[in-house]
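so i finally got all the pieces together for this one. its two components total, 738 residues if u count the protein bits. some of the lines might not be protein, just check the labels. i wanna see the whole assembly predicted at once instead of chain by chain like last time, that was a mess tbh
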Amino acid sequence: MRKKLDHGSLCFCPGSGDDTRSWGPPFVGSESAYFLSVNRNKKSLAVDLKHPRGTQIITELAAVCDVVVENYLPGKLDQMGLGYHQLSRVNPRLVYCSISGYGQTGPQCRSPGYDSIASAVSGMMHITGPEDGDPVRPGVAMTDLATGLYAHGAIMAALLQRQRTGRGLHIDCNLLSSQVSCLSHIASNYLNAGKEARRWGTAHESIVPYQVTSNRPVRVLDLPELIEHPKYKTNKLRVQNRKDLLGKLSDRFLQENTADWLRRFQGSGVPVGPINSIQEVFSDPQVKHNGLIQEMKHPTVGRIAVPGPAVRFSSFAASRPTPPPLIGQHTVQVLRDTLSYSDDDIRTLMETGAVSQNEAS
Amino acid sequence: LILLDIFLILCFCPGSGDDTRSWGPPFVGSESAYFLSVNRNKKSLAVDLKHPRGTQIITELAAVCDVVVENYLPGKLDQMGLGYHQLSRVNPRLVYCSISGYGQTGPQCRSPGYDSIASAVSGMMHITGPEDGDPVRPGVAMTDLATGLYAHGAIMAALLQRQRTGRGLHIDCNLLSSQVSCLSHIASNYLNAGKEARRWGTAHESIVPYQGFKTKDGYIVVAAGNDKQFVKVCQVLDLPELIEHPKYKTNKLRVQNRKDLLGKLSDRFLQENTADWLRRFQGSGVPVGPINSIQEVFSDPQVKHNGLIQEMKHPTVGRIAVPGPAVRFSSFAASRPTPPPLIGQHTVQVLRDTLSYSDDDIRTLMETGAVSQNEAS
C-alpha cells in the first residue's frame, strides 16, 4: 500500500485519531514507533464524522479521488451516508475498498477484527509453534500485512479494469479470507486428503530436511554414508524416516559454529541462513543494498527510519517519502488545495469543530 | 491476474517439472496436495530450455504476452537469451517480474532462496516462538506468500503505468525484501529506538491484553486494543476491581505492569471453557476468537459464506478443493477456476492457439524433444 499512495489522505475524528498512535513503548518523541512504521506518504485531515459538515467534506473528497479505503465495521459508514452505494452515486468511477475482520456480509461480519484473532480463527496459530508446545503468533502481524497486500493488488486490478469499463466498484477484503487463502498447502492437505495440520517448530511436514539446522545431506557435513542410503534417497523416503535422519544431521550440526557452517555451505547451491536478530538484519549488506532502510525527517521527532519498499522497478524510482503525519497536520492544506475551500470557509469549519488543524506543523 | 483474462502459462524443462509436484505426502492420486493448492488457472507447456527451439518458443510467447514472471537465479535467464533486456527488445510493452531469494543484484544475489531461509535471515524466526523457547517458523510460508502478493500488486501497478507510458519494465521482487519490509513496527522499534525484538508467544510487546489464554478445555485469544475494550474485558470476566486500578488504566500502564495483570486474567480464564467465554464475549465489542484447527476453520460458517472452499474437477485425480480467493469484487465474479495442470498438459494447445504453429511444426518439435505433451489429457 505504501508505494501506491502518491498523495493518500488519512481522515480521523478529532481527538486521539488512530489507535496505533498510542501503541508503545517505544515512543519516539510524541509518536509511537508503531505508528511511524506504516504511515509515510500520507496526509492527515482531522474531521469530525459526527458533524454534518464533516461527512460532507468526505463526500466532496470522494468526488475528486480515485480510491477510498476504509476499515469500519460493515454497515457503519452506510449509516453515516458514506457507504459505497452513496459515494458511488457521487462518483461512479470510485474504487471503494473495504477492509474488515470477517467480510462485508455473513454470520460474523459484525465482529470486530484484529490480526491476533484472525490468526487464531483462521488456523494460523494452530500451525505455528514448537512441536510439543503451545501455539504462538507469527512475530509480526502477517495476517494484517497479507490483507493490506491483497487490498493493494485488488485496487490496482480494479483501476486497470476501470480503464476498460469506465466504472469503479466495491472491493471486499478481510483478515479471515486473507489468512485462510494463505493456508495454501495446509488447507489442501485437509480439503483433499482429510489430513489435519499440527505444529512443526522450524521444520516442514512434507520436505525433509527443511528446518533450522539442516538441508539435503551433502558432502559439506562430511556424512558420505547418508548419500546413497536407501532410507533417504528421495524426499518421500526422507519424510518417512525423518526422525532418524534429523537425529544424525542435528548431532553433526551441533559440533560447529553457525559462522563456520555458513562458510562451508557457500557455493554449494544449498539454501542456508542464520536466524538473525533485528540488529543483524539491518547490518546485513544485502539488506542495505536492497534499500531496506529508508530515512526521512519528521516534523517533531527529527530523523526517523522505516523499512524500505519491498519492490523495485526499472523505470520509475519511488519518489522520496514524506514522513508519517501528525494528527490533523494537513487539514487546511487538503481543504484548500484539493477542495478549493476559501480561508473563511475553513475558519468557520474549525470554529464549529467540524475539523481541526494541528498547530505543530 | 485471473480477473483480467490473462491466462498463465507454466513452462518447464521436460522431466520432473516443478519441485513442488513431489512435496508430500499427502499425495492425491499422482499429484501432491502441495502442488494442487497453488496452481489453478494455469496451463502447462513443457519445453526444454536447453534446446535452441525451446528458448525460441519462449521468446515468441513473450512477444504476444503482457507479463513474464520468473524465479530463476539472477543471471541464469540472461545466459539463455531470455532476460529482461533481450525479451523487452522483442516486446517493449512487456512487464517482466523477477522473483528471487535476495534480489537481482548485491552480495547475496546468487544465493538460492527458500521461505525458511528468508524467514531466518530477515528476522521473522527470531521474533516467532514461545517467550522462553526456541524460534519457530510461521506454520505456512508467509514470506513466500507475501512476496507473491507484492509481485501481484507490482505487476498491476506496472500495467497501469503502461497505460500512460506505452512501455513495460522490469520488476525486482525477492523474499528478503518482502519479509524485511513486513517487519514494520518491529523494524521501526529498532531503527528509531534501538530496541531489539524478542519472542512473545501469542502476546504483543506494545499492547496488553493482546494474546492467547489457556481455558479449561483449550485456548481463547483476546485482543483488547484500547482502554474501552479493556474495561469490557474486566466486566465480562467479572473482575471489576481491575477497571479503575491505577496500574492498568491506560495501555502504557498495562504494558508496564503486564506480569501482574496477565497473571490475574490467566487465572480467571482457566475457570471456564472456551465456548463459554466466547458466548460471554458476544456483543461486547472486544475481539476474541478460538484457536481453530484446520477442520474447525473449514467448518466455520463465515469461512463458507466467504466462498473459501473452492471445488473443481481435476483430469486424473477427480474432485479437488483449494482455499478460495481472498478478495471479492462487486462488479465482476471470478470466473470458474480451471484445475492445476498436469505437466505438459497444454503444450500442443498453447503452440497451436497462441503461437499459431502448424501440426507439422508441432510434431517436429516433439520428435526432437524441444517440447513434450502429456498423454493423460
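Chain B touches chain A through 153 residues (CB under 8 Å).
Chain B has a mean pLDDT of 87.
anyway lmk what u think
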